[in-house]
TrEMBL record:
Protein name as it appears in the record: Bifunctional nuclease family protein
Species: Microbacterium terregens
Domain BFN span(s) in chain numbering: 1-135
InterPro entries with a match to the protein in the record: BFN_sf, Bi_nuclease_dom
Length: 185
């Protein structure tokens, strides 16, 4: 198993949401990244958890966390275990007074839950070998670089804050449309 982190959530050219999982021990822009296509609601839930955004009402994965907490159970990790005919499968490992339990899950739900509770995320080596793509550039790396560039320009008075925000928004829209296949060598 390879421990990964959520490198980002994007939209592919057809408008489908993709979660990008990156091995922890690999430098951004190098190695591999695992794209998994997910639904819009799951993408929103993952982004809310990763960004620590407040929501007015609990989302389904917040409810899952609350249910586990009220039962004295915890998520000790999740794993994307296999891929069959293009469909990814995952498991959530729970620890409770009844002992350790493994529950079948969709990868999107497992990642959303793990992101909320701080549980480690794992991917089977065979899955990464089968479905991983070269990571020539990562979204977080590009966004960080762009924000630094905009800060520099703002400090030098090259553009107004509104112009800088518009450029950042335009770039974020670009990231939403990026496809991991665009970065293959």
């Amino acid at each position: 198993m390879i421990q990964v982190r959520v490198a980002g959530v994007a939209l592919d050219p057809t408008g489908q949401h993709v979660i990008l999982l990156k091995p922890l021990d690999e430098i951004p822009g190098e190695g591999r990244i695992l794209p998994i296509w997910i639904g819009q609601m799951e993408a929103t839930s993952i982004l809310v958890a990763v960004e620590g955004a407040a929501v007015p009402r609990p989302l389904a994965h917040d409810l899952m966390r609350s249910l586990l907490d009220s039962l004295g159970a915890s998520v000790t990790g999740i794993a994307v275990t296999r891929i069959e005919e293009g469909t990814f499968y995952a498991e959530v490992t729970l620890s409770s007074t009844l002992g350790q339990r493994i529950v079948d899950a969709r990868p999107s739900d497992a990642v959303a839950l793990a992101s909320r509770v701080g549980a480690p995320i794992w991917v089977a080596e065979a899955v990464m070998d089968d479905a991983g793509v070269p990571d020539t550039v990562t979204e977080s790396d590009i966004e960080t670089e762009l924000e630094a560039e905009l800060e520099t320009q703002l400090e030098s008075g090259a553009e107004t804050a509104i112009e800088a925000e518009e450029r950042l928004d335009e770039f974020k829209r670009f990231l939403e449309d990026v496809d991991p296949d665009d970065f293959k060598g």
